[in-house]
User: Fold these one by one.
Assistant:
Number 1:
Amino acid sequence: MKTAQKKTVILVNDEAGLGVAISDSLRVSPGSDLSRKQSNIHLSLEKYGVKDAADPCSRIDFVDKSGSHQVTIILLPNFQPPVAACAANEIMELIMSQCTSDPPIILLPIPQASLKFDQDSKKSMMFDGAAAIFGVEVSPATEITEEFLSGTPKPPSFVLKCEVFSCLVLMLQILKLPSLLIGANVDQGGLSASGQDLQEITQIGEYLAKLTRLSFSKESINWREKGKRKSQEPWRALYG
């Protein structure tokens, strides 16, 4: 697998805490010369008329000995409209401004709770009662995105229920950046809500580790079972 092109993973700090858990799980592989550095990104949205928008974004960089950032993980707050569109635009501008050569491959790991599938199509993705990893190109396919997805099934049609991811996908399609949407379809039969979440974190974390040449560390996950998820706001039903 080709690894020369840099990768940027964009996660959302969802209500269940899966985004944070996945970012926590990715570590430097044994024997690698990379170092892991954590910082914050403070987005200024004042040019959009938005003041005091939200908490800062979390950023994790995996840097080689020459100081070059090989993998970057960005954890965004779960912005709501209309702020979500402004934040997505600012993040993409930041990523593009830091490109010294080719743009990075953008990886969007999306929790199952942020996707809406047709139930019959969803069942067809399951096998052996395990979580089925899937992936699809967001923008036109490139040689490296096709290689990344080799052997990985594409999902059936779906609707994005997370505003931040919806805005990011639109931006990536406009900019035509090499990008992948990644998810795991977890079998909900016989598993508690926390069991489903942990299975999803593990499947997505291991898959991201494979693509980025990092290490997945289940022990590094700082995650606790959440209470019952809040019911969806009525206005969201209008968007499928």
Note: Residues 7-225 form a domain with the Rossmann fold fold (CATH 3.40.50.10900).
Number 2:
Amino acid sequence: MKYKKLNKNISSKKKFFKINKILEHIFNINICSSNESISFLKKRNLYIKKIIYKFKIGYLCKNKFFKIRSKYKKYISCIKNNVRYFLFDKRIIFPIRNIKGNRIGFIGRNIKNDSYSRYIFSNIKKYIKKNEILYGLFENYKYIKKSKFIFIVEGIIDLISMFKIGIKNVISTLGCNISIYQIKTLINTKKNIYFLYDGDKAGRNAYIYITYKYFYLLINKNVFFIFLKYKDPDYLINNNLNYFKKEITNKISLEEFIIENNYFNNVKIINYFINNFSIISRKIKIIKIKNKYFSFYFSILKTKLKYFYI
């Protein structure tokens, strides 16, 4: 690939996107330059040409980083004490794109189990905030458009592993701390939303946070939670695929989740559940939870009638 000279008259935004496109290509063709990167991908059954090409998975090792003009190096490195440090050295790299397909930055995944951060981001704040990114919305758009629902996962590798087994209507929030911008973007897709976070404490706490924080936005939007008993989608796909396929069909609605866990210390939630009795009772499919809702509803009703007749 010949790197064309960048036009000085080009806008800073377009220049930024163009440089990232060049870097994406450099990272991508270096994916097979190291035994470490190959071993990492093979371990997760991702050493597949179509997958590497589809998601433009890349790699950077400073010792094998072939000739690149210094003007490109400066975007992924810094100099301290006359030594050049590369941001993504010995990391698997994933380009981040916006909905228009522009490369807005990169994520580097540490492939060693050491003290360094597992994921690091390039400087993307200039054109987008980290909590506005929905990875896969561009890459999987045509599959999402055809589907009635979307799976929401935490990690990029979870998304890619699901794509590998034919589940392509997936978006990643790049962690379990979901923002109001991301929630509103998901709602605007007008698809049923299936949260499929990791089966650890952080994943379960994220469901509680989503329920409390965004209840007023998600209610009546066909939002569901899927609880994995352990690990994450990527691990289960590679180690217990049959269990994973079975578990992703066992979803629980937002309403059922609230009732099952007695999240009724929020006045807005209480009022909604009281005023929409018939709608909610039809939505709830699990008999045990439906009975719990009836019990809650009539206890509140009884309290109201008691005050009415005093």
Note: The mean pLDDT is 84.
